[in-house]
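Hey, can you fold this?
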Amino acid sequence: MSQAPGEHDIIQQRIDNLERGKDELPDILRQEVFVFAQAMEKELLENDHKGGWKKCDPQWLLSRMCDEMVELLDCFDVERTNAPDRIGPREAFLIAQDHLRAAAGILRKHTGTHNTRGLARALAPDEARHSRSTDGVLSEAADVANFAMILADVCSKRRP
């Protein structure tokens, strides 16, 4: 994604101001939406060097969104149930992660994309995960939201 000269600096300054509590809330946005939008922008800025998304395949974008949803689920530490006859929250999370990983792999296979870096990262057992803090959840949720936004943008441009 190309930016006008100085645009990155302005956005980074706004992110820095937000982190210091000095950014101004636009009148049209709720506080929660504003904070989340800033988290999304921060994640996008950190990935600007990748060149943008305008030519990305929608199914590849879906696969990446699945990867990010797995990472979001990893932010939660959920108790395992002791009841053998029912599925508890922890088991439900593990099932969801497995299904999302499988979906990401199928989507990549269908598009012929062999870049499994995101999936491999999600499967790595000893990788340092985001902390289970609010910041970790916010960052991962922003990643998921960014892929949803990017997917909507790419698909809207493909309509006749």
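Oh, and this one too while you're at it.
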Amino acid sequence: MTKFFAAAIGLSLALAPAAFADSFKVSVDQTVAVKIAAPANSVIIGNATVADVAVHDANTILITGKAFGTTNVVVLDRAGKEIWANTLNVGGEPDTGLTIVRKGAVNSYSCVDKCRATPMVGDQPEYFQQVMQTVTGKADSAKGN
């Protein structure tokens, strides 16, 4: 019975290695480059509201986190054969991000050298709008508007 059990585990590991692979992680508003072993022809994203994928060149795709969530990415070659696929988890910046929740209202901050308000998906709408006005006002000033 023990030999049968070990053989069954070995067979399941050989047939489904992707099931045990770690999911791919990217932060909201960040882009990562992924090298693909064979030339990519088509790239499919499961949920385009969570992430965006662009083909940089035949062997490099760029994945950008757009909103918190989980989706999947599939890359196909010219023949339509799957050459790379993975689950994609999009999250925040745990090392430098700070989220404050007061009475159900969420406010996000980026704390690189000191904490500053940062607009993030899921923030309280009034807070998000106020921070965006500051950001766009600064950008307009830099343009001379």
